[in-house]
Design brief:
alpha/beta, 48% helix
């Protein structure tokens, strides 16, 4: 709205419920709101001004909504686990929350396409607060975790759920990430800092959602007869931490080599070094990697480096040259060449997308 100085923006904390008369006294031309109940929906629709919903709790076909592409979030989670060798998967979410159901749907659809068996689910009620769940719920989660095969990748609807899963794993003595790999959503440091293990998380592009919500509202104010639409914003990136850093392999030799690669990825890592650390010949290590992971040792080193590079790209203060040296590429030119080859795009263009310059995807709601 800084681009439109004629517009005045009023910001209020989300009330328990939206009061029609109180809102009308403000004489708004348009509203951006978290519409999380049918009562809210009815109250805001009765105002006869454009409303943009930015909540994913319910589906609102009569309201224009700008939100995360939750199917894409689920697909990204599946891709992350599958790329790390996980073939046993599970999901923890809330059966009543629309975004949770969509993330599960995307997760399950991607699993089926890759021939992965159906993933079991466990449901907890969604809460904005950090208050603990009742004892019976915690025990139920623990029993469910004990029954899962090992190793298993557990995708969680939010970081709050991921922290609860990590705590339950600690109580039932299931090691993270060796036995249970955990992936959350939101990349919310205020929650993740309370976990006993560093938890990987999918970061949503909330800044882009805010920008598109403002643009869409401005257009609706100028063209109020436009039909309701759903604008979907893809997730921003994966923040990979210890809870999913290890590949799911039933081979101590390969697992040790993978740990060595992760620990030294910030320096130039050579295949012969990895083989010496594993205590085998280069040929033996290559054969084991091909058989278990379907890739070479060198390709795995590069994959870990690129993951670290992408994680550093979201810091605007860090130059691409510094990122190249921090991730063991030796030079900025080598980093640029190899990045283009791996991602089919220049690192500067990739970084622009990470920083929120990619467009949202718009889809008309069904009539």
């Amino acid at each position: 709205f800084r681009q439109h100085p004629e517009i005045t923006v009023l910001k209020f904390l989300r009330p328990r419920s939206y009061q029609r008369d109180a809102i009308l006294r403000l004489k708004p031309d348009g509203i951006i709101a978290q519409v999380s109940s049918r009562e809210d929906e009815r109250a805001l629709q009765a105002l006869a001004v454009p409303v943009i919903n930015i909540s994913g709790r319910l589906r609102h076909p009569l309201l224009t909504t700008v939100n995360s592409d939750n199917l894409a979030v689920g697909r990204l989670a599946l891709s992350h686990f599958h790329g790390r060798g996980h073939r046993h998967l599970a999901y923890v979410g809330d059966r009543t929350h629309a975004a949770s159901r969509l993330r599960w749907q995307g997760f399950q659809q991607a699993a089926r396409l890759l021939g992965v068996a159906n993933a079991p689910r466990y449901f907890l009620p969604y809460r904005d607060s950090d208050s603990p769940y009742p004892e019976r719920m915690r025990r139920g989660l623990e029993r469910w975790l004990r029954a899962l095969p090992s190793p298993v990748g557990v995708f969680c609807f939010t970081d709050r759920f991921a922290v609860d899963v990590a705590k339950a794993c600690e109580r039932v003595r299931r090691r993270v990430p060796e036995q249970v790999a955990i992936l959350g959503t939101d990349n919310d440091a205020t929650r993740l800092d309370f976990a006993h293990v560093e938890i990987s998380s999918i970061q949503l592009d909330t800044a882009r959602i805010g920008q598109l919500a403002a643009e869409t509202l401005h257009n609706l104010i100028r063209h109020p007869r436009r039909p309701a639409t759903e604008v979907l914003v893809p997730p921003l990136r994966l923040s990979i931490r210890r809870s999913t850093e290890r590949l799911a392999v039933d081979d101590d030799l390969v697992a040790g080599a993978l740990d060595f690669i992760s620990a030294h990825a910030g320096n130039p890592v050579y295949v012969d070094e990895v083989a010496r650390a594993a205590g085998v010949s280069r040929r033996t290590l290559e054969l084991r990697f091909r058989r278990l992971l379907g890739t070479s040792v060198y390709a795995q080193v590069q994959r870990v480096r690129f993951e670290q590079a992408v994680g550093l790209m979201v810091d605007p203060a860090m130059s691409l040259d510094a990122i190249a040296y921090s991730t063991g590429f030796g030079s900025a030119s080598a980093f640029s060449t190899m990045f283009r080859r791996h991602f089919q795009v220049a690192p500067s263009a990739y970084r622009s997308r990470l920083l929120g310059e990619q467009p949202g995807r718009e889809r008309r709601s069904p009539a």
